[in-house]
Amino acid sequence: IRTLYKSVTADIVPKNRLATAIGIVSATSIIGMMIASPFAIGFVHTHSYGMLFSILAMLYLGAAIMVAFIKTPVTTVPRFKLSLYTFLEKTVMPLALLRFFNSTCRGVFMAYNILYAIQMGVLNSGMVISTFAMANLLARPVSGYLTDRISRHKPFVIGIYLFLLAGFILFAFNVFAGAAVIGLGMGMESSAINGIAMKKSEHSALNRTSATMEVSFSLGMIAGASLSALYTGPLASLFIITAFVYLCPIAIILYKRT
């Protein structure tokens, strides 16, 4: 689903508004997650799990019916040839590498933000992730809009990574302010990088482009969570170390000529 929604969006939205559309669509998924979790927790107190999953199945059925009314252009399917690039799009690999580094940092944040908030004496540690999610939600459509309007993407994306670098350092000292900055930066990065990748791709490569970006995101999350599990020092230092991982995507952007 995560792979297909971006390619379907690219099918029906003009390229000059594509990043905006991707930002809006991805923001709606966060809204759904924010609504669904408390609803499900409250629902199972008075109803069975079977009833809950039946409602979820009906929601999927409704979504499938809605998808049937989406009109996408008919395209010629290229001849099948099995290779790595049958499933991945090589033209967006540099952007996928940027996405990988960001999601590696995200993996560290998601693994340890609650634990660190508890160590810092936050009574309602769940509010830290709520702060992150709300900031992330607000940033996505705004960043998509800016990506469509800005002609020079390099300074914009470098600015996002510097913003995230500062956010991780800030989180080591103030979890709520840091979570807000990280949420804003993650939301901006998601819309910007995905939007640039989809705008750069040929129409026949949209599904591969979307898949490439999702694979890099998933691999980064796994890497971040796995590598941080090997760390045994203070968590504040872990977040500061993670901040400087953003020097890697910045170096890649500066090295690339286009």
Structural write-up:
The chain is mainly alpha-helical and 258 residues long. Helix content is 76%, strand content 0%. It contains 10 helices and no strands. The protein has helices spanning 2-12, 18-43, 49-68, 93-119, 126-149, 153-171, 175-200, 206-229, 235-243, 247-255. Helix 4 packs parallel to helix 8.
Short overview:
This protein has 258 residues and is mainly alpha-helical. The chain is 76% helix and 0% strand. The radius of gyration is 19 Å and the shape is globular.
Task: Give the helix/strand layout.
Elements: H1 2-12, H2 18-43, H3 49-68, H4 93-119, H5 126-149, H6 153-171, H7 175-200, H8 206-229, H9 235-243, H10 247-255
Task: Give the percentage of residues in beta strands.
Answer: under 5%
Compute the number of strand runs: 0
Q: How much helix, percentage-wise, in residues?
A: over 70%
Q: What structural class do helix, strand and pairing data support? A: mainly alpha
Most strands sheet? none
Q: Give the rounded overall mean pLDDT.
A: 87
Radius of gyration: 19 Å
Q: Distance between termini?
A: 31 Å
Order of secondary-structure elements: HHHHHHHHHH
Low-confidence stretches: none
- Basic shape: globular
Report the total helices: 10
Keywords:
single chain, 0% strand, 258 residues, mainly alpha, globular
